[in-house]
Each structure stands twice: as structure tokens, then as C-alpha cells.
UniProtKB/TrEMBL annotation:
Name of this chain's protein: ABC transporter substrate-binding protein
Family: Belongs to the leucine-binding protein family.
Sequence intervals crossing the membrane: none
Signal peptide coordinates: 1-25
Keyword annotations from UniProtKB, A to Z: Amino-acid transport, Signal, Transport
Gene Ontology biological process terms in this record: amino acid transport
Domain (Leucine-binding protein) ranges: 26-361
SUPFAM superfamilies on file: Periplasmic binding protein-like I
InterPro entries assigned: BCAA_transport (IPR051010), Leu-bd (IPR028081), Leu_Ile_Val-bd (IPR000709), Peripla_BP_I (IPR028082)
Native source organism of the sequence: Thalassobaculum fulvum
Length: 381
């Protein structure tokens, strides 16, 4: 086995991570994720989830009588590395499908490779541009940034507010979500009265937030980004004494955001999947069994708290396996067709109904509006 594909959860500097399946593995599934680097809070739980699920499926006899092998690389969130690994997955590893792309940038870099090779690709990144316009071989599991804007604006209007100060990261996801929020604001009855941005390495956003604070009539703040930037924004908002409602994107839907933001996170709202409040859902909720089951399995297997990002990998893997079973084959074209025919799939993100014109299959009802209270997630009634 090549040194570049040896699995090491502790080797933070590793550029490539591979997980070899059992000796009798017959179906190769590929993955390239940001297991290390600045986006590791996305990729690490995704990678751990895929390993856990492959082990479970193989222990139960595999898919259509064949064992699975997961070939996994760590791109660190770097689009160039992601594209290199995508090419390797196709040309050297000869995988039949790929789950990956922790970030929008990495995903967009890989799409041309899988489209040309005609390999089904299920992305775990957030931006709507991944599946709009529809690309034949590309699907995704997370709610889109456009949906996040819609859900946030819906909640803002419910609070009797309408004037929003927008602050966004300049990376792929932040740039995309900013544009989506600008596009849907008018139809949602919201006016963007301030529009500020910051760079990926910025450590202080007080100048931008001061401008927002002084914007005429501003009633709420929305931060479109993921990673450390939103935690800095949250702390800066409190340091400036800004008492306005603060909203974050679904890109920070993990315990690490609360830990990074500390006490400043109190009262922050964001749209996310039911996974973060699995134990708080009523027994009558049709999604509860799925999210509670995954949460328990993941936390037992890893000893780490569950995050929505691992849930994206869970949904992608389960849909891929279901597609292989439905097709009765692991042949890429047959699997692609079966994924596109996914209907009524209950995942951690919600109920998925895909079609030839919708390679996500979620609507706004799949989002839950959450608020951080006493260092934990609570449902907004």
C-alpha cells in the first residue's frame, strides 16, 4: 500500500489519508475531505462517520453481497489538492462513486473531474452553486446557503424586524451565501442596510461591525461564513456592546463554534438540522429515530460529540448504499440514476426527495431554527 494512503487520525500534517477495506472488498468508494487544516471541524467528523458506516455495512455482509472499500484522502480543504486526489480516485483507485468535498471550494474544484469520468459524486459542502444549475453526476446533502438565508430571514420577520446588517467571509462559502442573501432579501421582506466583508485571516472585525452598528435603522446582524471567522464576529459584537439579534449560518452548526465563541455565543440563532437537538425532539417527530440513532452510534464509536457535518456524510453514505441496492449494481451510471430517484429518504438533514431537476431534494421545512442557551442548542419555538 502506498505511504500516501496510510490512515492516521493523529497525523495532522498528512496530505493524503486512505482507509483500506477488508481483503475481500469488491466495491471501491472514494472520499477526499478536510480531515486536517482549518476546515477539519467539517472533515474530521465526516471521515469518522464514513469509516464507522463502512465497518457496519461490511460486518452485516456488504452491499448486494459485496464488501466495501473506502479509499480516503485528506485534502485539508485545499481545492488544488482536492482536484489532485479526485483525479487519483478516478484513474488510480478506480472508485465507483465519491463522497466528499468538505468545503465549497474543494467541491467545485473536483466537479469537472467526476463529470468527465461519469462518476457519481455526493458533496458535503453548503453552497447552492454545487447543484444549481443541476450537473448530471453531482449531488449534495447539506442544506444550501440560499435556504439558510431564507430560513434566517423568515425568523427575523417573525420577530417583527426587517433591517439587516450583513457581514460575510470572502472565501467560497461566505461569498456565495452573501450573494444568495442579497438575492432573496427583497422577496423575504428584508432590507440589507449594511454589507461588510472580511478576509480568511482577519482576527478582528470590529471596524466592519462598527459600520454596521452605525447603519441607519439596523435591527439584526447576519454573519455568512464558517470556520473561525464567525466566532470572532460573535465575540466582537459583544465587545462592542451591540445588543442586536445575531444570526450565524448553518456552517457553524457544531459544538466547536460554541467553544470558540464562549459566553458571547449566548442568544445566537442559526438554522441547522435536527441532529443538534436530537434528544430534545418530541417522540412524535418522524426524524427523531434517525438523528438519535446516528448520534448514539457516532458518539460511542468516536467518543466525540456529534455535529451536523458528520450527519451530511451519514446521509450521503446511506443514500449511496440504498442506490446500489436499488440498482442491484455498483456500476456508476446505474448508481447515479438510482440516487436521482431517491424519494422519501429520512436523513439527518430532513426528508430527501430528489429528481432530475433537484439534486438536493430538501426544502425549508428540513431546517430547524436553533438558539444557543447556556452553552447548548435549544429549539426556537
Amino acid at each position: 500500500m502506498k505511504k500516501s494512503i496510510l490512515l492516521s487520525w493523529t497525523a495532522a500534517a498528512a496530505l493524503a489519508v486512505g482507509l483500506a477495506g477488508p481483503a475481500d472488498a469488491e466495491i471501491k468508494i472514494g472520499s477526499t475531505l478536510a480531515v486536517t487544516g482549518g476546515a477539519s471541524f467539517l472533515g474530521d467528523p465526516e471521515a469518522r462517520t464514513l469509516k464507522m458506516l463502512v465497518d457496519e455495512v461490511n460486518a452485516a455482509g456488504g452491499v448486494n453481497g459485496e464488501k466495501l472499500e473506502l479509499v480516503q484522502y485528506d485534502d485539508g480543504g485545499d481545492p488544488n489538492k482536492a482536484r489532485t486526489f479526485a483525479t487519483r480516485l478516478v484513474e488510480d483507485d478506480e472508485v465507483v462513486a465519491v463522497i466528499g468535498g468538505s468545503t465549497t471550494g474543494a467541491t467545485m474544484a473536483m466537479i469537472p473531474v467526476f463529470e468527465e469520468a461519469k462518476i457519481p459524486f455526493i458533496s458535503l459542502a453548503g453552497a447552492v452553486v454545487i447543484i444549481d444549475p443541476v450537473k448530471k453526476w453531482v449531488f449534495k446533502t447539506p442544506h444550501t446557503d440560499r435556504m439558510a438565508c431564507g430560513k434566517i430571514f423568515e425568523d427575523i420577520r417573525k420577530r417583527g424586524l426587517s433591517k439587516v446588517g450583513l457581514i460575510s467571509g470572502s472565501g467560497g462559502f461566505g461569498k456565495s451565501m452573501r450573494q444568495q442573501c442579497l438575492d432573496v432579501a427583497g422577496s423575504a421582506g428584508v432590507e440589507i442596510v449594511a454589507d461588510e466583508t472580511y478576509g480568511p485571516d482577519d482576527a478582528d472585525m470590529t471596524p466592519q461591525l462598527t459600520k454596521i452598528k452605525n447603519a441607519a435603522g439596523v435591527q439584526a446582524i447576519l454573519n455568512a461564513d464558517f470556520g473561525q471567522g464567525p466566532a470572532i464576529v460573535t465575540r466582537n459584537v459583544r465587545q462592542l456592546g451591540i445588543a442586536l439579534p445575531l444570526y450565524q449560518s448553518h456552517g457553524v452548526a457544531s459544538k466547536s463554534f460554541i467553544e470558540l465563541a464562549g459566553e458571547a455565543a449566548e442568544g445566537v440563532r442559526l438554522p441547522a438540522s435536527a441532529l443538534l437537538v436530537a434528544d430534545k425532539l418530541p417522540d412524535s417527530d418522524p426524524q427523531k429515530a434517525v438523528v438519535v440513532g446516528y448520534k448514539a452510534a457516532y458518539e460511542k464509536a468516536t467518543g466525540e460529540p456529534v455535529s451536523t457535518f458528520g450527519g451530511h456524510a451519514y446521509d450521503a453514505f446511506q443514500m449511496l448504499v440504498a442506490a446500489m441496492k436499488k440498482a442491484g449494481s455498483s456500476e456508476p451510471a446505474a448508481v447515479r440514476d438510482a440516487i436521482e430517484q431517491t424519494r422519501g429518504f429520512m436523513g439527518t438533514a430532513g426528508v430527501v426527495n430528489m429528481s432530475a431537476t433537484d439534486h438536493l431534494g430538501l426544502d425549508l421545512t428540513a431546517f430547524r431554527m436553533l438558539e444557543i442557551r447556556k452553552g447548548d442548542w435549544t429549539l426556537v419555538e
